[in-house]
Design brief:
This protein is of the alpha/beta class. It contains 13 helices and 19 strands. The chain folds into three domains: 256 residues, Aminopeptidase (3-Layer(aba) Sandwich); 94 residues, 3-Layer(bba) Sandwich (Glucose Oxidase, domain 1), CATH 3.50.30.90; 77 residues, Arc Repressor Mutant, subunit A (Orthogonal Bundle). The two termini are 21 Å apart. It binds zinc ion (ZN). Zinc ion (ZN) binds next to loops.
Length: 439
């Protein structure tokens, strides 16, 4: 990504925010889970934007300590009271059915029904989002206020779902760069009608992929649209032989809420992705940077000790902290175009830094080279001027000893990365720098 590409992409972030939001709106109604037709339908819609490959891993396939589960699909789910009124209707909100519920069709007493109903008494208007992937169970989720309206009568519970041998579905899109080293960006596509967690990440990754496919990036990029946890584990187990190519990774989640930007460092703590993200956040007044911890999203798998890949995660408000998290309140009103656009812009800035962060060698390391004869120094000495270009040249020449990257030079000098990059290009063009290749 050169400076022109970068400026072009950054200029259009507001309209990209609109497009991301509109994709999110079309994905919102789909009932997704870790397997099933909801994931396929989601990936097919994303294929209208990027030509991703849809992979299927059969039920029963081993993936390290895990096994691909049975595939879950659902058509309908409801509870009828004794007057045949639907007191819960999956068609109104797919959060109403415990995700991965086994099928059921029977009449039961209120006291039995209560054991299968989940509510949030502290958020009485919200429907909770709950799952039971690895324990065969059925259940319903509803607002606590609606639950309080139920009376002691007989109810008819119906869940029209299937749990059968099938497969786990995921999407993958690869953009070939100038080098084979990879930058991997992941999101998860297993949550039903929930926006910030994590349709926001899905649409963000889609649009980054779309834009990077139009330019010739330096790194090769791999975009993963996977069910959380089991999808990451399955992908890693299938792709273990290619893992060495991965140099940087980011997990995109919770990128559409109004909160401040949060960066969760990789397990390394000071990997290049960490330095790039911290550089970008440093210029934002309100932000937070937190150390890696082994829960959260798929950085858990990519950063497990057997892989230890440098995966960070750039979010806004971190999962679990915003009250809308895993409830029906995480909807299309909670996420806004402008926040999606802002997060997108930060991701692009991090990618720009990573794309251009090279280490160079000063080809004239004995004393300063004479910049004036190369047209790189003011011709009349003693003039008062801003001088940041000249300072940048001196910093680059002095620190280009093969150890410092352009980002290191930017951080040490306090000068902006794009200035350092532009002036290092000038020094390259007059052969005062050469690329360090044996890193
Ligand atoms: Zn979640």
């Amino acid at each position: 990504m050169n400076t022109d590409d970068y400026n072009f992409i950054q200029k259009s972030t507001l309209s990209t925010g609109k497009e991301m939001y509109s994709l999110m709106k079309s994905l919102f109604p789909i009932c997704r889970s870790i397997t099933g037709n909801g994931v396929r339908e989601t990936l097919k819609i994303i294929q209208k934007y990027i030509p991703l490959t849809i992979h299927e891993i059969p039920t029963g396939t081993k993936a390290f300590d895990w096994t691909i589960p049975k595939e879950w699909n659902i058509d309908d789910g409801y509870i009828l009271d004794s007057n045949q009124n639907k007191i819960i209707d999956f068609k109104k909100s797919n959060l109403h059915v415990l995700n991965y519920s086994i099928p059921i069709d029977k009449k039961i007493t209120f006291s039995k029904l209560k054991e299968h109903i989940h509510t949030l008494p502290e958020q009485p208007d919200a429907i909770p989002y709950l799952t039971s992937y690895y324990n065969e169970e059925w259940g319903f989720c509803m607002s606590h206020n609606d639950f309080l309206k139920l009376s002691d009568e007989e109810y008819h519970v119906v869940i029209k779902s299937t749990l059968e041998d099938g497969s786990l579905t995921y999407g993958e899109y690869y953009v070939k760069g100038k080098i084979q080293d990879e930058f991997v960006l992941t999101c998860y596509v297993c949550h039903p009608s929930l926006c910030n967690d994590n349709l926001s990440g899905t649409v963000l990754i889609t649009f980054i992929a779309k834009l990077l496919s139009k330019i010739k990036p330096y790194y090769s990029y791999r975009f993963l649209f996977i069910p959380e946890t089991i999808g990451a584990i399955a992908w890693l187990s299938k792709n273990e032989s290619n893992i060495k190519k991965i140099k940087h990774g980011l997990v995109a989640t919770c990128v559409g809420d109004p909160g401040d930007v949060t960066y969760k460092r990789s397990r390394h703590g000071n990997a290049e992705i960490d330095k790039a993200a911290e550089y970008v956040l440093k210029h934002i007044e309100k932000h937070s940077i937190i150390d890696f911890f082994p829960s959260g999203s798929d950085e858990r798998q990519f950063s497990s000790p057997g892989f230890n890949l440098p995966f960070g995660s750039l979010m806004r408000t971190i999962y679990g902290v915003f009250p809308e998290y895993h409830t029906s309140l995480d909807d299309l009103n909670f996420v806004k175009e402008e926040f999606l656009a802002d997060s997108f812009s930060k991701y692009i800035e991090i990618i720009f830094v990573i794309e251009n962060n090279r280490k160079y060698l000063n080809t004239n390391p004995k004393c300063e080279p004479q910049l004036g004869k190369r047209g790189l120094y003011r011709m009349i000495g003693g003039q008062k001027q801003d001088g940041s270009d000249e300072m940048a040249l001196f910093w680059i020449l002095n620190l280009s000893d093969g150890d410092n990257s352009l980002l290191d030079i930017s951080n040490k000098s306090g000068l902006k990365f794009d200035l350092i990059k532009t002036l290092s290009d000038k020094l390259l063009s007059v052969n005062l720098l050469e690329e360090k290749t044996n890193d």
